[in-house]
Amino acid sequence: LRGTFCGSLAHADPASEWCLAAVTLGADLELSSKNGTRRLQADAFLHGLMTTALAPDEIVVAAHVPLLPDSARTGFYEFSRRPGDFAVAMALAVIELRKGEITNARLGIGAVEGKPRRLEAVEAFIVGRKPDLALFEEAGRRAAAAVDPMADPVNPAEYRRTLACTVVTRALEKTLT
Ligand SMILES: Cc1cc2nc3c(=O)[nH]c(=O)nc-3n(C[C@H](O)[C@H](O)[C@H](O)COP(=O)(O)OP(=O)(O)OC[C@H]3O[C@@H](n4cnc5c(N)ncnc54)[C@H](O)[C@@H]3O)c2cc1C
Questions:
Q1: What is the whole-number distance in angstroms between the Cα of residue 26 and the centre of ligand 1?
Q2: Which of 11, 83, 105, 125 is most exposed, with the fewest beta carbons within 10 Å of its own?
Q3: Distance 125 CA to ligand 1 centre (A)
């Protein structure tokens, strides 16, 4: 199965890994039509479930993803019912450390709500603290409390809320491995 990065963004599936990465990393998208080109942040581009800011005559021609500093540590964790299935919940974490403390954090959650988004309040909670499992578990609990999970016939909203806690905790843990 193959697809393109910009095609995934235009498709706007809430369970798309590329959409989560674009939002969490602050990708800047270039949209083009016969009338010209405009730029939009991924977060503003994605409106919700399979819905974007694209006008009918526009296509996504480029995605500019800012480089992370060398010191950045990343962690990604995804839960799906079977290997290869669409994610039921996933999280991407990027942290920077100085003198044993988190100085910068980006934390994105996907497949839980209609579109991926950063959890800014949880990011603010972990910045200035020492990274350890207790901190990451509390971050997971805060993430679960912050989301408004969608339900589908197989995965009730409260199940997704529980998974939000798990994927955020594990993505953060992976930043240290
Ligand atoms: C069995 C299966 C499993 C999948 N699992 C996953 C998964 O786990 N995670 C995941 O993220 N995705 C998954 N997908 C979705 C699939 O990977 C995406 O559709 C793909 O990433 C996008 O493919 P594409 O670039 O070929 O775009 P297409 O599939 O050709 O197009 C998708 C939509 O976007 C539009 N489009 C495409 N490119 C552009 C562009 N540049 N500008 C504007 N509009 C555009 C098309 O018109 C169409 O409406 C799965 C799909 C299948 C069939």
A1: 20
A2: 83
A3: 35
Q: Give residue-wise pLDDT tens across range 16-61.
A: 999 999 999 999 999 999 999 999 999 999 999 999 999 999 999 9
Question: Is pTM, for the whole model, over 0.85?
Answer: yes
Ligand 1 contacts (CB < 6 A) are: 1, 3-4, 6-8, 10-11, 13, 15-18, 54, 59-60, 86
Q: Annotate 30-64 with DSSP letters as a single string.
A: EEEETTEEEEEEHHHHEEETTEES--TT-EEEEEE
How many angstroms does the Cα of residue 10 sit away from the middle of ligand 1? 8
